[in-house]
Amino acid sequence: MQKTALELATFLDGSIEGRPDVVVFAPSKIEEAQEGTITFLANAKYEDFLYTTRASVVIVDREFVPKQTINPTLIRVDDVYAAIAKILAEFAPVSTIRDISPHAVIADDVSLGQHVGIGAFASIHQGVRIGNNCSIHDQVYLGKDVSIGEGTIIYPGVRILANCKIGNFCIIHSNAVIGSDGFGYAPKADGSYQKITHVGNVIIEDHVEIGANTTIDRSTMGSTIIRKGVKLDNLVQLGHNTEVGKNTVIAAQTGVAGSTKIGASVRIGGQVGFSGHLKIADDTEIQAQSGIAHSITEKGQRVFGSPAINYNTYIKSYFIFKKLPELYRTIYRLEKEIAALKEKNETKND
């Protein structure tokens, strides 16, 4: 794809400063840019690269004032990050397919909407319903009675097991597994475990994106539910009967034990661990590698640590923790001085 600076400025509702006819064919990082690429400047610490970059076009804030002469054409916009998100989407490789491969295996009673693509060696089982404009890539498995809403993209190797429901305009990345059994076992008198059969499903609402190799377990009974607008990173594990509120984001390698209810607009860093049967209030922020052992009931809390506590309290505590060896030496010295003073006073009194 090739676009002129003028075409891109019109696309971004921005204004041009420089050559409107310069052509770009790809986006790039500002420090690695080559001629014919478009990049952006949103963080002041990268400003020095603006004066040396070989990019043909740079997206900047409308109010930005350069300190030196610059060579690239500038496109000035109201929100640089929003603009570059649109550019990346515009230049992204095509992720949709509209043909049905002769190598796909599709049950006779599958319901297909209009303009559905199904890749090679996909396996689509009885009772599956797929909405309009969906792309089901190679080697996807859709189990019995799965439903897929319109405009959804399912990348290669995804497994969606029986009775699970996927909403409209979702993106599910490679090798995600949705609807596997939860981790449920009943201990027996002889020390072994009886498997608990999981007869529920997973419901994914609209505009959800699920990262590669993420797993979402089906519920024991009822549904594991991922609400509208949720974004899950790669390698996230959600246990049976969990619920994730709308517009919540969860970073990679986070694990959520069963029956935990996470509120709306929660932000969760990487490698966070949740105990089961917790409730997490709306707008909570959880720092990376925190351990959540108790419910968070007050909205808007920021927590950190394991077990997690208030973020500011943790930072203050960590500052003290780093000084413990020094504090120990100081206390030890003071104890010796006090002991010496006591001995001196006792000798003097004698």
Describe it.
An eleven-stranded mixed β-sheet has the order 10-13-16-19-24-27-30-33-36-38-39. The chain has 350 residues and is α/β, with parallel strands linked by helices. It is flat, with a radius of gyration of 28 Å. The longest helix has 26 residues, at 324-349. The chain is built from five helices and 39 strands. Helix content is 18%, strand content 28%. The chain folds into three domains: 3-91, Udp-n-acetylmuramoylalanyl-d-glutamate--2,6- Diaminopimelate Ligase, Chain: A, domain 1; 105-312, Hexapeptide repeat proteins (UDP N-Acetylglucosamine Acyltransferase, domain 1, 3 Solenoid), CATH 2.160.10; 315-350. The mean pLDDT is 94.
Q: Please provide the count of β strands.
A: 39
- Low-pLDDT stretches are none
The CATH architecture category of the largest domain equals 3 Solenoid
Name the CATH homologous superfamily of the largest domain.
Hexapeptide repeat proteins
Strand content: 25-35%
Q: Tally the helices: what do you get?
A: 5
Largest sheet: 11 strands, mixed
Keywords:
28% strand; 18% helix; eleven-stranded mixed beta sheet; 5 helices; 350 residues; Udp-n-acetylmuramoylalanyl-d-glutamate--2,6- Diaminopimelate Ligase, Chain: A, domain 1; alpha/beta; UDP N-Acetylglucosamine Acyltransferase, domain 1; ten-stranded parallel beta sheet
What's the SSE blueprint?
Elements: E1 3-4, H1 5-12, E2 15-17, E3 23-24, E4 26-27, E5 37-40, H2 47-50, E6 57-61, E7 73-77, H3 80-91, E8 105-106, E9 111-112, E10 117-118, E11 123-124, E12 129-130, E13 135-136, E14 141-142, E15 147-148, E16 153-154, E17 159-160, E18 165-166, E19 171-172, E20 177-180, E21 185-187, E22 193-195, E23 201-204, E24 209-210, E25 215-217, E26 223-226, E27 231-232, E28 237-238, E29 243-244, E30 249-250, E31 255-256, E32 261-262, E33 267-268, E34 273-274, E35 279-280, E36 285-286, E37 291-292, E38 302-305, E39 308-310, H4 311-322, H5 324-349
Parallel strand pairs: 4-5, 5-6, 6-7, 8-11, 9-12, 10-13, 11-14, 12-15, 13-16, 14-17, 15-18, 16-19, 17-20, 18-23, 19-24, 20-25, 23-26, 24-27, 25-28, 26-29, 27-30, 28-31, 29-32, 30-33, 31-34, 32-35, 33-36, 34-37, 36-38
Antiparallel strand pairs: 1-3, 2-7, 21-22, 38-39
